[in-house]
UniProtKB/TrEMBL annotation:
Keyword presence, ATP-binding: no
Protein name as catalogued: Pectinesterase inhibitor domain-containing protein
Keyword Disulfide bond: yes
UniProt GO MF annotations: enzyme inhibitor activity
Organism annotation: Oryza sativa subsp. indica (Rice)
Length: 109
């Protein structure tokens, strides 16, 4: 037969575990709830943009953790798009300078 103190210790540990689990899930939900809602609204039923891609892209910028409006997300999105376009242009310029060895690809670039 289990002693009363062992049962109480077991219950206390389970209670503490449950509280920590609930607190952690609420913290995670609170941190990403606005971001998730914004991405769900933006992506909607789009076949080109998924909610997961939107969340991954916007959360790659540290500023997204303190965002509370769509306008602030738009600023981050424009900054990410600008950085991506600049990087792509540099890559294309490099391929054109060095020659890709493929005339059709060079023509397209």
């Amino acid at each position: 037969m289990a002693s009363s103190s062992n049962v109480n210790n077991g219950v206390s540990v389970l209670f503490l575990f449950a509280v920590l689990l609930i607190a952690a899930s609420q913290l995670a939900a609170g941190t990403n709830s606005f971001l998730y809602g914004a991405c769900k609204t933006i992506a909607g039923g789009s076949e080109l943009l998924s909610v997961t891609f939107c969340i991954d892209a916007l959360s790659s910028d540290n500023r997204s953790s303190n965002i509370s409006s769509y306008k602030e997300f738009a600023v981050i999105a424009v900054d990410l798009l600008t950085a991506n376009a600049t990087s792509t242009k540099s890559e294309i310029d490099g391929k054109l300078r060095n020659g890709s060895g493929d005339a059709a690809a060079t023509l397209c670039l």
